[in-house]
Amino acid sequence: MAIFQVVYRDDEHEELITIGEISSRSDVLTVKENIYCSTLNCDCKLSYVPRGVKSAYFKKHVGHNHIDSCQHFIFTDENGRPRRVVGADYARLSSKRKRDMLKGIYKTHKETEEERQMRLDRQRAASRNKRNRVVQSGNQVVDVTVQNPTTSNNAEQLVEDGRSMPVRRRHSILDVADSDIGNNIVVIGTVIEIVNSENYGVITLKDSTDTMEFKLYLERVFYENSPINTPQMLTSIESFMEDEVEVTVSSVGEVVNRDNRKGMLVLAEEDLSFNGERLGSFIMNN
Fold first, then answer.
1. Where are stretches of biased composition, namely Basic and acidic residues (predicted)?
2. Is the per-residue pLDDT at 136 higher than 60?
3. Contact at 8 Å (CB) between 136 and 79?
4. With b meaning 16 or more CB within 10 Å and e meaning fewer, what string describes 78-114?
5. C-alpha to C-alpha distance for 159 and 144, rounded to whole angstroms
6. Which residues, 6 or more positions from 88, have their beta carbon under 8 angstroms from its beta carbon?
7. Nearest-angstrom CA–CA distance, 26 and 10
8. Phi/psi class of residue 210: alpha, beta or left (left: φ > 0; alpha: ψ in -120 to 50)?
């Protein structure tokens, strides 16, 4: 059974919090580390999984369990085949896949409350009968090669078994975790500053609560992989911001750690979307 309400507890007090409230709180980083099951007598520590491909949800923290009488206690269904990871490879995301992801995260970002509730209702209905799956030791081990998505042109464009590779979506830059460093993900935020030159640039984003900044690094390779007039188009974005036009950028790229802060290395103009549009289209429409 899905969990939609938890107890936030610190040394001085505790309060009930719904899953829709966490991301909008100014103390979201503290709250996420101190949430527990709200069922009477169940003190199971929980983890908050931010919205990605699926809606946000709560799950058991590693090493913690619900009590047997808790409504969220689930018996495990003993089936499934053990997997052995024998290697890892990088597969390049296609232009269409990147375009769909960037448009999709912006659409979700701008959805109305009614649209959001309809989407959540569909996802909750699909998850009600979910069961944990565990491995049977007697089953034959399946060797697998992990395919890691990347925006680099040095990797082959490969989709195993005709299925798209999963790419993490971070609908708030507050949800970008240390475990994301070195991986390619999708982020979205509001632009507050653009530093722009012929072969280097930085786009600084903020989250909806003004709690954190997140930098998108546009290095020489970005300009080599982009239209020649990209610096001029980015300058136009700066002009729009001076006219108080709110610009929301969604981006796909590798998460990096610079100056002890997480940011993203963007490799091409097609890896960016401005209010749901490619850079050139956004400028023409404004």
1. 109-124
2. no
3. yes
4. eeeeeeeeeeeebbbbeeebbbebbebbbebbeeeee
5. 14
6. 145, 146, 147, 148
7. 16
8. left
Measured between alpha carbons, how far is 203 from 171 in angstroms, rounded to an integer?
17
Unique residue bearing structure tokens 């992989």: 225
Q: Distance (Å, rounded) from C-alpha 161 to C-alpha 209?
A: 41
7-34 residue pLDDT tens: 888 877 888 888 878 877 878 888 888 8
DSSP secondary-structure letter at 227?
A: -
Query: What average pLDDT score do residues 248-263 get?
Result: 94
Q: What's the pLDDT tens digit per position in 143-157?
A: 666 677 788 877 666
**Tokens describing residue 208:** 């909806």
For residue 264, count other CB atoms closer than 10 A to its CB: 26
How is domain 89-111+146-284 classified at the CATH fold level?
A: OB fold (Dihydrolipoamide Acetyltransferase, E2P) (2.40.50)
- What are the extents of the domains in the chain? 5-60, 89-111+146-284
